[in-house]
Amino acid sequence: MLLLGTALAAGVGIWYTNHSAYWAPMENVTLQATPVGGAAPEPFGVSDVTAIRSASSPLGFRACFTTTSSPAFMSERFEVLENVAPTVPPSWFDCFDAPAIGEALASGGALAFLGQENIAYGVNRVIAVLPDGRGFAWHELNNCGKKAYDGSPVGDACPDRATFKGDF
């Protein structure tokens, strides 16, 4: 009975830690997109931003918002991304349905844009917008982050990690 109780308590502790303990709501989140040509990111008109972040990783960022900018307008102005896929947030952050967003991106029902490159070392912010004005943001590893993570040399195209100061 003691062993079963200990296992149950450990399971609940692990679930709580992964599901709630490291996640916190964010306020005053500024969402921007990177113009075609790589100029500095700029605002694109968002409202009703709801965002969370994980205290343990820069990849643990998710946001939901609304925008008046259409995907067509944004695709002419901002850098379009392909082959991106959101990761699943905690279930209590219910505005962010990662499988549905991923499906919309795969089918062309949503477009993804580069929000900000290297918001943290090796991590890009991705913005996805649906035709109805709903939008989503998350963080993904970029090529520098993938190389740093797998231990291969990052090369000269990546920022100097010793002097890097990200925004996140």
Q: From N to C, what is the helix and strand string?
A: HEEEEEHEHEEEH
Averaging pLDDT over every residue, what do you get? 88
Helix content: 25-40%
Radius of gyration: 18 Å
Main structural class: alpha+beta
Question: Order of strands side by side in the largest beta sheet?
Answer: 1-4-5-9-8-7-6
**Helix run count:** 4
**Unreliable segments (pLDDT under 50, ≥5 consecutive)?**
none
* Main sheet specs: 7 strands, antiparallel
Could you say which overall geometry the principal axes of the C-alpha atoms support?
Answer: globular
- SS strand fraction: 25-35%
- Quote the distance from N terminus to C terminus: 46 Å
Strand count: 9
Q: What descriptors fit this protein?
A:
single chain; about 170 residues; alpha+beta; seven-stranded antiparallel β-sheet; two-stranded antiparallel ribbon; 4 helices; globular
Describe the structure.
It is a single chain. The chain is built from four helices and nine strands. By secondary structure, the protein is an alpha+beta fold. The protein has a seven-stranded antiparallel beta sheet with strand order 1-4-5-9-8-7-6, with helices on both faces. The protein has a two-stranded antiparallel ribbon with strand order 2-3. The longest helix is centred in the N-terminal third of the chain and has 20 residues, at 2-21. The N and C termini lie far apart (46 Å).
